[in-house]
Amino acid sequence: MLVNTLATKNDLDSKKDYKRLNSIMLTSDEWDLIQDLIPVLKPYAEATELLGGSNYCTHSMMNPILINIKKRFRPSSSRGIAAVEKININFNDNNTAFDEDIAIEENEQPQSEVENNAQQLPKRIQINNPVNCQGLMDKIKLSLFAAMNHYWNDLTSPDKLLPTLLDPRMKDLSFVSDFERTAAKDLLKEKYEELKFQDSNDNLSSSIIVDNNKQNKKEYTIFANLKKKITQADDEIGIYLQLEEIDLEANPFAWWHERKEKFPILTFLAKKYLAVYACSTASERLFSDAGNILTAKRSKMCPNLFKKLVFLKRNGKHLNSIHGEFNES
Fold first, then answer.
1. Residues near 96 by Cβ (< 8 Å), separated by ≥ 6?
2. Would you give the DSSP letter of residue 89?
3. For the chain, first and last CA: distance in Å?
4. Is the Cβ–Cβ distance between 196 and 263 less than 8 Å?
5. What CA–CA distance (Å, rounded) separates 5 from 18?
6. Structural domain range at position 286
7. Is 16:120 a contact under the CB 8 Å cutoff?
8. Which of 49, 108, 161, 210 could, after both became Cys, cross-link 184 (CB 3.0–4.6 A)?
9. What is the pLDDT of residues 318-328, one digit of tens each?
10. Pair (300, 171) in one structural domain
11. DSSP structure class, residue 221
């Protein structure tokens, strides 16, 4: 609309702006490429959102998600694999791997000056030169696969699959081969036997036998005949692996807590390997909220008010559970 409006103007500045704006507008091929990129990049956006959570178990989901994304972009032919190996990206150099120092400019200077300036900066993009979109989508997919293959080359080793094997939501490991699945189960059996037959029982007993001391809990003898006695399974791993997978929305920690008496050793291992993966996502969100509250126009806000606003921002979602829904009437 802006281009069409400037085209109707007769003054010199409008004509100049029209020519400049028309030269940097995206072509139809570029718009089509952007539209085609949406489904390609969607798995990465979903993975970032899922793995960026801090209120649920993410460690066991990481490998299945990355393996699924790699399978989507893996070339189906030997020619495609060879093309991936020819991709010239130095992932060890942050300047070329992440393109943090990109300069955007309009090509209004002689070619000799452009070449001289290109030597001074790592990379310069001429925004008024249309991008050659022919075959570019295939190059993007191959580059994404090459990057993932560099950073996550080994995703199916037994130690990488062990957290997922201890997650009752995806313990069948249906996304790997039978050999890799068997190797992960063998590692679990090894860890299980080490924990079962270790000589020291001080820390282990206190961690496995939880809530066995029920002196503070009142028991009713009238229900003694109705109470079901939960006994420890003789073959914890075998019984656990035969169970059906639970829903992906379920909480694996709650599942193990309810079965800690039947699977005491496996419960201990699950607590160890399903622990929340350390990340800075929660603190980064807090700093982002603080920056949105304490803006340049509110720099004189007193610290006490600032703390209260940050607290309300992070905990406002719990107000309805405390005071109930507020109805204006």
1. 89, 90, 122
2. -
3. 46
4. no
5. 9
6. 281-316
7. no
8. 161
9. 777 766 665 55
10. no
11. G
Q: Is pLDDT of 235 > 50?
A: yes
Higher pLDDT, 307 or 10: 307
The tally of CA atoms less than 13 A away on the side-chain side of residue 95 is 6
125 token code pair: 């993009």
Residue 164's pLDDT is what?
94
Bridge partners of 103, per DSSP, are: 124
Q: Which pLDDT band holds residue 177 (cuts at 50, 70, 90)?
A: very high
- What is the C-alpha to C-alpha distance for residues 285 and 280, in angstroms, rounded to an integer? 9
Tokens coding 213: 């001391």
| CB of 43 closer than 8 Å to CB of 143 | no
> Are residues 144 and 44 both part of a single domain?
yes
Distance in angstroms (rounded) separating the CA atoms of residues 41 and 115: 33
Three-state secondary structure of 44-66: HHHHHHHHCCCCCCCHHHHHHHH
Are 230 and 267 in contact, with CB atoms under 8 Å apart? no
Report, as an integer, the average pLDDT of 279-303: 83
The helix, strand and coil proportions of the chain, stated in percent and rounded to the nearest 5, come to 60, 0, 40
Q: Is the pTM of this model over 0.90?
A: no
Neighbours of 196 (CB within 10 A): 12
Does residue 85 share a domain with residue 134?
yes
What distance in Å separates the CA atoms of residue 7 and residue 329, rounded to the nearest whole number? Answer: 55
> Residue type at 271?
K
> Looking at the 3D structure of the chain, how many domains does it have?
3
pLDDT interval class at 38 (50, 70, 90): very high
Residue 159: band (very low, low, confident or very high) from pLDDT cuts 50, 70, 90: very high
Q: Are residues 170 and 102 in the same domain?
A: no
